[in-house]
């Protein structure tokens, strides 16, 4: 079922303040908050706008508090928590319902008791605009039957557009007792999304109030007809040189919409989640003024707030078109179909992706369909675009007098609200977020774009921005380049896009050469055994890269197990791709070098990493303190990748031990519970969290390699089994996979609604950590879903054939 809460949840502060919502604009900007209305972390805000000059977005409009005058009484709908613990106002007590409509938050407040009114607020962002819309309307009051009658907004919008053709509104009578006066308090800011703002009585934002006549003239130009809307607002500039932004109110005819400048600071807003994490937790916000308007029940009685950094000339000033903007945003969200299209040299084919019964029912139900729908919407929120100076395929910037010196490039946001680029996480997430959702062009553009920035065989940890070009210290990971091979392989197997392979092939050849001869951080192949080694002390070069006081918590110096599994996979892929391009006449020679390297690597890997006493793999060998026996999930990559390096005979014992020691309902522990350094809880303090992240905490994205490993061991059809045995085993694997997905159905209704967290406590009850959303976690759960859907079809086809 869609995510929705009734009054039993909405009136409970503990329930509503712990549930968050998030919407995004496809540029790296977003809006986010809690169901209660209180802001519990610095990144929360109604307009967090991206910029071409900054990798991190900037918070501009933090929130809007509503005050309602109805029937000679004032109702305060906002909820704020202050430094001294005061909750004022406590508007959540008026919240009747909350739901997400295709991801967009919709709040319904009861005004005036059982015989009063219902005020609905909905929030959305259009794609590729730094703009947020907040729209208010009054729903029909209670009728004599005692029931609340609310019209479906989208249906009523259709009727209104047809009836009025976008023009005209019903006049209201001044004697109508159903009229309410809406006062809106927009709290402004000007800071990076994750920093605090300190107010100062000497610091007043520059407020330019706009006269209604200016908007009316602009509306007439845009609509080519008389504009009935009443428009008020202002342009805000925090200081000289700061980016300006606008807050506007568009009301219907007769709404008496006005903007009254105030210019006052509100002090000491408290962010409880930040305090728990040991971060700065006090923020000051600026009130540039207040909006006032009148509303009454009726489909055409609407007030819309626009917060935007875009030019005023580009804004919509007509209520019917604003409502149509919401409808278009909803339709955009609904556009993720349950089918897959494959484009290759053999043409296009279409496959329908079946719905999986993950909620425990014998056949798929509505909740199962909603689950995959929410997952796809969650995945789409990580896509963004960035404008950077133009550069060629070598990564060098070349301004041109003849062409635009900037270009727009695709990126994946690794997670909200930790929005720093992470190239490794983008590559891990790419197959699930782009390929299972058929967004092949995004995958192609991202892979092509990343390939510009190889340097001495390595990809940077982040991607460049206009203000922050890459530096040598940004090349600090041993495995990110190897994850590029992994992601490219997934892309090529689906699309057969050999033109991309042609473009990047020489770069890949260079990468392998650099890794063999040696590159940054002492990374090189040991010539004695063909295994990949990282020797630099004090550097955290693998995905387990948490540091405390610049000291790695899990340094893993030496030859890490998953790094060598990825290295072997890359060598095998290069052997495959070189032969393929040679056969197609796209390169003029074929080499056996990669095959020889991979054979040496595999032989020595199996001899040196296998710990026969307990039948699993060392986590690191040849480290400064010898070989590391820590039982970690990294060893799964030795047989989860398409080219598994671990011999078949050893895979099941590793899988069984990992299943017993590391699998939790929300991911895989990063260390077995019986290890001396195990941390079963993330703890609240940020430093303590870093100590626990890779010492026992459970990471969701690791379920992807786990399912791949499971399929490697249990999912293949063997010639020694009967057909019936094959079917039984395939069905068992399928049901095991469904059980792994099931906990996430309820998880989507908690914390960050409709989104998957990244890391959880290793111990029961597996509480979610502070990373509220994760591209790798979402991508891998989507990829698992896709694998299981195809596996289900596979074993059913086998069953029908016997």
**Quick one: how many beta strands?**
36
Describe the largest sheet: 9 strands, antiparallel
Content-based structural category = alpha+beta
Report the radius of gyration as a whole number of Å.
Answer: 28 Å
User: Helix fraction?
Assistant: 25-40%
End-to-end CA span:
37 Å
Query: Count of helices?
Result: 20
List keywords for this structure.
802 residues, 25% strand, 20 helices, 36 strands, 8-stranded antiparallel β-sheet, alpha+beta
What would you say this structure looks like, in words?
The protein has 802 residues and is α+β, with helices and mostly antiparallel strands. It is built from 20 helices and 36 strands. It has a nine-stranded antiparallel sheet. Strand 15 (230-237) and strand 16 form a beta hairpin. Helix 17 (703-714) runs antiparallel to helix 18 (723-741). The longest helix is centred in the last third of the chain and has 27 residues, at 775-801. The chain is globular and about 85 Å long.
Write the layout of secondary structure elements.
Layout lengths: L3 E2 L1 H4 L2 H5 L2 E5 L5 E5 L10 E7 L2 E17 L2 E4 L2 E3 L5 E4 L4 E7 L2 E8 L5 E8 L6 E9 L13 H12 L15 E13 L13 E5 L1 H12 L6 E8 L7 E7 L6 E13 L1 H5 L5 E14 L6 E7 L10 H15 L5 E6 L2 E6 L13 H15 L2 E7 L16 E7 L10 H13 L4 H11 L29 H16 L2 H20 L6 E2 L6 E2 L13 E2 L2 E2 L6 E2 H23 L9 H16 L1 E2 L4 E2 L2 E4 L2 E3 L8 H4 L7 H14 L1 E2 L2 E3 L16 H7 L5 E2 L3 H12 L8 H19 L1 H5 L11 E2 L14 H27 L1
Antiparallel strand pairs: 1-9, 2-3, 3-4, 4-5, 5-6, 5-13, 7-8, 9-10, 10-11, 11-12, 12-19, 13-18, 14-15, 15-16, 16-19, 17-18, 20-21, 22-23, 24-25, 26-27, 28-31, 29-30, 31-32, 33-34, 34-35, 35-36
């Amino acid at each position: 079922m869609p995510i929705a809460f009734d009054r039993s949840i909405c009136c409970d502060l503990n329930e509503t303040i712990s549930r968050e919502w998030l919407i995004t604009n496809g540029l790296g900007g977003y809006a986010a908050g809690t169901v209660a209305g209180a802001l519990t972390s610095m990144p929360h805000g109604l307009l967090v706008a991206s910029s071409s000059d900054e990798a991190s977005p900037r918070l501009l409009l933090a929130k809007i508090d509503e005050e309602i005058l109805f029937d000679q009484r004032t109702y305060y709908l906002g909820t704020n928590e202050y430094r001294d613990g005061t909750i004022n106002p406590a508007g959540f007590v008026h919240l009747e319902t909350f739901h997400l409509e295709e991801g967009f938050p919709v709040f319904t407040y009861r005004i005036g008791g059982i015989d009063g009114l219902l005020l609905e607020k909905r929030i959305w962002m259009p794609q590729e605009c730094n703009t947020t819309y907040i729209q208010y309307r009054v729903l029909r009051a209670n009728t004599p039957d005692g029931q609340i009658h609310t019209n479906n907004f989208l249906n009523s919008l259709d009727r209104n557009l047809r009836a009025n053709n976008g023009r005209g509104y019903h006049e209201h009578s001044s004697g109508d007792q159903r009229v309410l006066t809406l006062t809106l308090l927009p709290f402004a800011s000007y800071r990076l999304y994750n920093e605090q703002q300190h107010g100062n009585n000497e610091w007043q934002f520059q407020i330019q109030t706009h006269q209604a006549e200016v908007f009316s003239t602009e509306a007439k130009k845009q609509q080519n007809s008389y504009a009935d809307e009443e428009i008020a607002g202002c342009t805000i500039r925090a200081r000289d040189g700061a980016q300006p932004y606008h807050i506007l109110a568009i009301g219907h005819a007769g709404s008496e919409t006005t903007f009254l400048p105030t210019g006052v600071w509100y002090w000491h807003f408290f962010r409880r989640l930040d305090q728990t994490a040991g971060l700065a937790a006090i923020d000051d916000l600026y009130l540039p003024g207040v909006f006032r308007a009148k509303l009454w029940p009726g489909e055409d009685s609407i007030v819309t707030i626009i917060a935007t950094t875009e030019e005023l000339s580009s804004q919509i000033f007509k209520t019917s078109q604003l409502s149509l903007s919401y409808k278009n945003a909803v339709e955009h969200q609904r556009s993720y179909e349950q089918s897959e299209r494959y484009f290759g040299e053999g043409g296009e084919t279409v496959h329908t992706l079946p719905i999986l019964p993950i909620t425990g029912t014998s056949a798929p139900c509505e909740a199962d369909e909603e689950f995959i729908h929410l997952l796809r919407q969650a995945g789409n929120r990580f896509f963004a675009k960035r404008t950077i100076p133009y550069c060629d395929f070598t990564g060098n910037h070349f301004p041109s007098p003849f062409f635009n010196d900037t270009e727009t490039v695709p990126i994946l946001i690794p997670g909200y609200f930790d929005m720093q680029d992470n190239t490794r996480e983008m590559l891990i997430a790419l197959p699930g977020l782009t390929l299972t959702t058929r967004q092949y062009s995004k995958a192609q553009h991202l892979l092509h774009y990343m390939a510009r920035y190889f340097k001495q065989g390595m990809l940077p940890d982040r991607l460049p921005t206009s203000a922050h070009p890459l530096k040598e210290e940004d090349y600090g990971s041993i495995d990110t380049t190897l994850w590029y091979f992994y992601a490219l392989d997934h892309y090529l197997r689906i699309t057969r896009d050999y033109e991309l392979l042609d473009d990047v092939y020489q770069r890949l050849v260079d990468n392998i050469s650099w890794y063999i001869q040696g590159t940054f951080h002492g990374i090189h192949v040991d010539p004695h055994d063909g295994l990949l080694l990282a020797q630099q002390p004090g550097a955290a070069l693998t995905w387990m890269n948490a540091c405390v006081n610049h000291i790695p918590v899990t340094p893993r110096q030496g030859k890490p197990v998953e790094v060598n599994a990825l290295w072997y996979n890359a060598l095998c892929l290069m052997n495959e791709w070189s032969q393929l391009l040679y056969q197609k006449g796209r390169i003029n020679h074929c080499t056996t070098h990669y095959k020889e390297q991979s054979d040496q690597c595999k032989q020595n890997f199996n001899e040196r990493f296998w710990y026969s006493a307990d039948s699993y793999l060392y986590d690191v060998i040849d480290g400064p303190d010898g070989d590391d026996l820590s039982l970690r999930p990294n060893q799964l990559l030795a047989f989860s990748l398409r080219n598994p390096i671990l011999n078949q005979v050893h895979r099941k014992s590793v899988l069984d031990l990992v299943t017993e020691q590391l699998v939790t309902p929300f991911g895989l522990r990063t260390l077995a519970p019986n290890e001396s350094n195990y941390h079963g809880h993330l703890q609240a303090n940020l430093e303590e969290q870093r100590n626990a992240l890779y010492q026992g905490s459970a990471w969701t994205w690791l379920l992807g390699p786990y399912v791949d490993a499971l399929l490697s061991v249990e999912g293949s059809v063997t010639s020694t089994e009967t057909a019936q045995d094959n079917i039984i085993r395939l069905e068992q694997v399928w049901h095991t996979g469904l059980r792994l997905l099931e906990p996430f159905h309820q998880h989507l209704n908690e914390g960050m609604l409709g989104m998957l967290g990244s890391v959880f406590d290793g111990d029961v009850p597996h509480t979610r950590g502070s990373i509220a959303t994760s591209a790798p976690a979402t991508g891998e759960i989507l990829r698992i879903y896709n694998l299981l859907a195809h596996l289900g079809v596979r074993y059913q086809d086998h069953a029908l054939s016997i």
